[in-house]
Amino acid sequence: MIQRCLRMPTVRGLVQATGIVLSLGLAGGAAAAEQDVDPEADRVLRAMSSYLGGLAAFSVQADVDDEIIDLAGQKLQLSSSASLLVERPNHFHAHRQGPLADMEVVFDGQTLTLHGKRLQIYAQLEAPGTIDQAVTELRAATGFDAPAGDLFYADPYPGLMTDVTAGAYLGIAYVDGTEAHHLAFRSAKVDWQIWVRTGDQPLPLKYVITSKWVTGAPQYAVRFRDWDTAPTIAADRFTFVAPAGVRQLETLSVDDLGALMIEEAQ
Known about the structure:
The chain is α+β, with helices and mostly antiparallel strands. It has a domain at 7-29 and 55-165 and 215-260: outer membrane lipoprotein receptor (LolB), chain A (Clam), CATH 2.50.20. The protein is built from four helices and 16 strands. It has helices spanning 11-16, 39-54, 131-142, 156-161, and strands spanning 2-7, 36-37, 57-69, 75-87, 91-97, 102-107, 111-116, 121-126, 164-175, 178-187, 191-197, 204-210, 219-228, 247-248, 251-254, 259-264. The chain has a 13-stranded mixed β-sheet with strand order 2-9-10-11-12-13-3-4-5-6-7-8-14, covered by helices on one side. Strand 5 (91-97) and strand 6 (102-107) form a beta hairpin.
């Protein structure tokens, strides 16, 4: 087997290092009444989840900062850019470009395609159904999670609240000049914060996860910008056509650090 590594930092990769998986699934966590969660924090998170889940389509750009601790104990920050286009219930296109990967993920309602642009390779997984079902199938088959993918399920709230032990409403803050509610949540292994736009469009503007028990407490931070809740979508936007010279590979999986491992039979 020829094994190639297409490394793409993910939320899952950060929390796996501490032995916990941040659930992106549809099964709910413990109810807020069983946790020490500020009612206002819970209200804002529910409003954001309901609003996102109710959008028929949207697009967003993101800037991602992913901290790692190297073998010498030095903390390094890897920066990348990402874009996401969603058309519910069964289409999405995601692209992430950074120092470790230039990768797109396309779902056309039947097939998930992962395309490594720099390596000129791609792999496909049959996954007919909704976006939620496709991403769940991708996780089950490969262990791969999209960055901050927990925010983009049809109902983000249950996955976000899984394993949460406490939540606080920290008041009003500003993200890139936009007024936002600042929420902070805790679980046994990770802490996470989210900034949600105030007003009648409660969109996430910033999302930070801290692996608090890992040496150096590395963080994964995403800033969302250029939200479009009524995007114009071309008819072929979710159709993947392999460029000339790009090879289709057979199997793929993810290691514990969130590296996408794609293997080709010789």
